[in-house]
Amino acid sequence: MANLMKELVSGVVESVLKEILKKAGGSPATKRQKRQTRSATTGRFKKAPATKAKPAKKQVSRRKTAASRSSSR
User: Fold this and answer.
1) Would you say 38 and 46 are in contact if contact means Cβ atoms under 8 Å apart?
2) Which residue stretches of the chain are H helix?
3) Dihedral of CA 11/14/16/22: which sign?
């Protein structure tokens, strides 16, 4: 009886492992690419215009002063 249960459990475990391993070998998702636009005159692909970098914003301190903290009580 114990041998029969052991066989049954091992069979189920093996089939579950096979199923998991089968699904794990799938291909990864492909990265999407934007469609390239062609030039109206030459028909070649246009180069994307270079975007100008914005200047960094000045960092503002978020720390409250001691006076404002004490006044809220």
Assistant:
1) yes
2) 2-24, 66-71
3) negative
Specify the pLDDT at position 41.
Answer: 84
Q: In whole angstroms, what is the distance from residue 50 CA to residue 55 CA?
A: 16
Q: Which residues sit opposite 38 in a β-bridge?
A: 45
Look at the block and give the residue holding tokens 């006044």.
Answer: 71
CA distances from 56 to 18, 59, 62 (A): 54, 9, 18
Q: Which amino acid is at 30?
A: T
Give per-residue pLDDT as tens, 9-66: 899 989 888 887 776 666 677 788 878 888 888 888 877 777 888 898 887 776 666 7
CB 15 within 8 A of CB 7: no
Q: What is the pTM (predicted TM-score) of this model?
A: 0.31
